[in-house]
Amino acid sequence: MSAEIEFKTGVIKPYECMKEGWELIKPQFWLIFGITFVGILIASFVPFGIALGAMFCGIYIPIFKLMEGEEAKFEDLFQGFSYFVPGLVATLVLIIPAFILTVISYIPLIIFQIRLAQNPNPDPNELFVFFAFVLVDMIVIWLVLGCIHAFLFFAYPLIVEHKLGGWEAFKLSAKAVWKNLSGVVGFITLEIVLGILGYLACMIGVYFTLPVMFAGALVAYRKVFPEAGDSDFAAPSNAY
User: Fold this and answer.
1) How many Å apart are CA 106 and CA 44, to the nearest integer?
2) Per-residue confidence at 233, pLDDT binned at 50, 70, 90?
3) Among 10, 63, 65, 191, which residue has the least CB neighbours within 10 Å?
4) Domain ranges of the chain
5) What's the pLDDT band for 240 if we cut at 50, 70, 90?
């Protein structure tokens, strides 16, 4: 099915997408804020990110409706559970590498603890090499996970709009992201800036920027993936 879904390239302008996203949700900002807050809260309480995909889908559904001129409702969030399986599969694309890389990152720490037990006064040069290695290791891990996260950029909207399976949505998302790499990287950079500003605002400000980020991301999605003539944002009868 993904082969039939066409996408555009070179159409993402990060600031404009974020601005259009804000204009889209501004009339019902507090509704979208509540949906986003509760969705992220539920996702954070369920261990191992199992509900993350479902909640992301649930957050996108009311924003999709606003985009189509339909009425958004708070209960739209819980329609995300109708996409639990494809959402989980897409999320596992990030969770599994994150778990593996985290385990690998602990190996040098374990080795260091063993060496420290054998020699409580290690050579300073050895310590410098160890901490430099750990720093490089962490940078590589964050870069790898950042790339995977970027390739997931369009996956959840694709699951909602086109009822794709999780792996199929990830593959199509990755392909579209690669063809729009500069725009997606620019948008994610803008998200990071907004997130930092939100944290600086007594740390709670980030919760007020998240709805705008989701809306801006959906605007970027729509620019890349033109509206399907038969779009239906009702809960699917079966999605895998």
Assistant:
1) 24
2) low
3) 10
4) 2-224
5) very low
